[in-house]
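Hi V.,

You were right to ask for the full record rather than a summary. Here it is.
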Amino acid sequence: MSAKDVHVVPEGGSNFAGVQGCCEILAAGGIAPGSYDEIWLARGTGATLAGVALAAAKEMPKTQIKGVAVLKGGDFLRRDIHQHIHHENGQVLANWTLLTDYHHGGYARTTKELLSFIKSFDHETTIPLDKKTTTVQ
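Predicted structure:
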């Protein structure tokens, strides 16, 4: 096997191939244009947000993609997301936002307030939140 036959997937899948794969998430989930005003994602590397934002820009141009960084000091993700999007389409998209002040101390950290919010949100909406990327189990 030669090096050209090997594809290395970095931790978190955050490379251009990972972004391309994430472009398929909305279609794979049966998300139809106009179904949602906003789509929220917990973010670790930014690849998923970049891929979903690219797909939404084409298929659901009025939908905003909101990412919540789970990493403390996650401001660097904005640059990474911009680079992924620009590499894929050569443009700057205005359909996404990254929030970096809600990490609760860092990846998989939690507070009593966060756990209370997760429980309340689930109860009120019946929408379960991803506890693996938002809290410690």
